[in-house]
């Protein structure tokens, strides 16, 4: 089974979070997860906010 930290590692390594990965994270976050997964998710949040990881869903947004 995929863990949150696995999805995060891929996003951090590639610098890109796909829509599929976002959906996978949403699903994974509905189940119990450990501290390591929580910390990984927080690292991803910071990386997205600082621009170190680009989000495919934000690039598709036409809401400007």
Provide an overview of this structure.
The longest helix is centred in the middle third of the chain and has 15 residues. Strands 1-2 form a two-stranded parallel ribbon. The radius of gyration is 12 Å and the shape is globular. It has one domain. It starts with a helix and ends with a helix. It is mainly alpha-helical and 64 residues long. Helix 1 runs parallel beside helix 3. The model has no long low-confidence stretch (mean pLDDT 93). The chain contains 4 helices and 2 strands.
Low-pLDDT runs = none
What Rg, in angstroms, do the CA atoms define? 12 Å
Q: Please tell me what the overall shape is.
A: globular
**Percent helix among the residues?**
55-70%
Q: How many β strands by DSSP? A: 2
Biggest sheet features: 2 strands, parallel
Q: Quickly count the domains.
A: 1
- Class based on secondary structure composition and strand pairing: mainly alpha
Strand-residue fraction?
5-15%
SSE order in H/E notation? HEHHEH
- The separation of the N and C termini measures 38 Å
> Averaging pLDDT over every residue, what do you get?
93
Strand order of the largest sheet: 1-2
> What is the count of helical runs?
4
């Amino acid at each position: 089974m995929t863990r949150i930290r696995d999805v995060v590692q891929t996003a951090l390594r590639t610098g890109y979070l796909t829509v599929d990965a976002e959906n996978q994270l949403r699903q994974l976050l509905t189940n119990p997860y450990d501290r390591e997964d929580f910390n990984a998710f927080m690292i991803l949040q910071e990386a997205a906010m600082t621009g170190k990881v680009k989000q495919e869903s934000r690039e598709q947004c036409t809401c400007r």
